[in-house]
Amino acid sequence: MKIQVITTFWLLTFCLYSSHAWAIHNKSTTLQPIGFANNKMFYHDIEKGTVVIKQGGNKTPLESIPIPLNLGEQLLACQKFKSQETQLIALLLDKGMLHIQKDDRLSSVSLKAEHLISGLCGNIDADILPEIIILAEKNREVFLYIFRQGSHQDSNNIIRLKLDAPVGNYQLHADFSKSSAHSIVVLDARNKIVERIYPHQLLPRFEYQKVDHSTMWQHYTNMNRASAKLMWNAGARSLAKLDLYVDSVTEPISFHEKRAPEQVKKILKNLSVNQHQQAVDELTQVYINWKRGKNYNAD
């Protein structure tokens, strides 16, 4: 398995912080979840300085990968859907800026928080690319942030969600099938669920405009505007992309069975920002007909 290494200049920067960063934030265990994808969970073993990969419910690690240095405040591990290449991402919060190191690329974004609590890398929406998901403390409050791949420096594409939880020692976990999350779970130090967050809570809000990209799909498939907007807003730029997401979030669906529409509706409802059932129903019909080789809006 190929691990893309962190570049030398970033290592030198992080060396200033690495000796004490983890101790400062009082991590309660040496095995921290840092990513999920492809039926695998990725953990940072802080004591051993390795990334541990576990598959399914197996307790025995699938693989253990050494890390050159203990980097920054938070280390993440990412895989794209159906890829075996693991990418390490290092995060450092310093003076209101979150520095994100991926491969040999360094990006920074404004993040007015005191410190990072926990982080994961994994997919939550129909764009399929893994997102950076972090918990951070600000003014004695806990916030969850989503940074989408390719848009880390665009503050308009960062989603922030305030949690109804006091400041504490939390971990992020993913409830996921195959490679996409059904929900993100916040656990306390006793491994009790503090909050469960669903994908539709983490997607950007949208407003209808006279002309935008979703209009194109509205005309192409004869969907109503809300259904087209739901698909576009969830990250799917085509029915083929939506199909890829469905494949990443559930076991194979038999699309010619009667129960197939209800299975699809459940998935799409989880992506609907405003929980619009009619939009979910119509997009389901269009998608099912597409899978069955029928006209998009056929009965």
UniProtKB/TrEMBL annotation:
Keywords: Signal. The keyword Signal applies. Residues 1-23 form the signal peptide. This is Uncharacterized protein. It comes from Pseudoalteromonas luteoviolacea.
